[in-house]
């Protein structure tokens, strides 16, 4: 298995991205608020097109040096960071087309390619491992400046965006601002208006394990994960990178289980009876 070292600036995989002669001339400073998967991939794409990028992340925890430390990486600003994830075929296709060096490094770090029907493919990989490899690629990109700062608001004037204001009051000028703060972010609210946040009405718990030497993941019956279902419960097992996996127990609650005509007044009784 790969020793887990982060990719360096001299990593040959980075040659898969656009070279200096292929990059277009930048059109000014870009500020990206949020350094999750969306912010990291946007930073890489814009930087490799010739833009200067400032990537702002409110989480101050440094990136671990290797994927073995990904499980202890504290990313308080990223919801469900350590919960199990499966990479959809669309994500794998987008990364392969735009950031092939990232896919190559993920595979070198222990992510396993998965063949799917209809010529599709994906990877068995933890969310934390994906972000670690993306962050290392961003840190190695010469025109990206990663800063630990929280953005309070977007500055605008004359009908155009002019920058962002940080929590400490400082203003960073920008010709383009990318809001990658997630679904609960508020930076774009003045333009996007109210949003609807519908609860999932599901409760789940998960835990991470590592396979014993020589052991395999077993049969996969639902795309990239195996699933077993029972009376109101489901067990999903997420194979991940470097021999790790995460079982997740899922139990739907309330209206996710059943709905009732309110005229009969039995909704509360059914909701209380189900957990019992």
Automatic annotation (TrEMBL):
Keyword Manganese: no
Region annotation Disordered: where it falls in the sequence: 1-26
Residue ranges of coiled coil: none
MF GO annotations: monooxygenase activity
Keywords of the record: Monooxygenase, Oxidoreductase
Bias-annotated ranges (Basic and acidic residues): 10-25
Superkingdom, taxonomy of origin: Bacteria
Record-linked InterPro entries: FAD-dep_Monooxygenase_BioMet (IPR050493), FAD/NAD-bd_sf (IPR036188)
Tagged with keyword Glycosyltransferase: no
PANTHER family in alphabetical order: MONOOXYGENASE, PUTATIVE (AFU_ORTHOLOGUE AFUA_6G14510)-RELATED
Name this polypeptide is given: FAD dependent oxidoreductase
Taxonomic lineage from the root: Bacteria, Bacillati, Actinomycetota, Actinomycetes, Geodermatophilales
């Amino acid at each position: 298995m790969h020793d887990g070292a982060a990719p360096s600036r001299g990593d040959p995989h980075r040659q898969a991205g656009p070279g200096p002669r292929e990059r277009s001339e930048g059109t000014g400073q870009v500020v990206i608020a949020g350094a999750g998967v969306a912010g990291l991939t946007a930073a890489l794409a814009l930087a490799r097109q010739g833009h200067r990028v400032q990537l702002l992340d409110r989480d101050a925890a440094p990136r671990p040096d290797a994927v073995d430390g990904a499980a202890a990486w504290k990313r308080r600003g990223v919801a469900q960071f350590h919960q199990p994830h499966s990479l959809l075929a669309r994500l794998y296709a987008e990364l392969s087309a735009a950031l092939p060096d990232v896919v190559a490094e993920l595979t070198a770090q222990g992510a396993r390619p998965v063949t799917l029907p209809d010529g599709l493919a994906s990877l068995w990989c933890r969310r934390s491992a994906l972000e670690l490899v993306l962050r290392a690629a961003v840190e190695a990109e010469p025109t990206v400046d990663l800063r630990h700062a929280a953005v309070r608001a977007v500055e605008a004037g004359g009908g155009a965006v002019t920058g962002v204001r940080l929590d400490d009051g400082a203003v960073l000028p920008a010709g383009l601002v990318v809001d990658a703060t997630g679904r609960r972010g508020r930076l774009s609210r003045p333009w996007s208006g109210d949003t609807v946040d519908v609860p999932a009405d599901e409760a789940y718990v998960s835990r991470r394990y590592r396979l014993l030497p020589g052991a395999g993941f077993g049969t996969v019956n639902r795309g990239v994960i195996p699933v077993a279902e029972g009376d109101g419960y489901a067990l999903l097992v997420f194979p991940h990178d470097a021999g790790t996996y995460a079982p997740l127990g899922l139990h739907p609650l309330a209206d996710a289980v059943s709905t009732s005509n309110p005229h009969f007044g039995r909704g509360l009784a059914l909701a209380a009876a189900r957990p019992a």
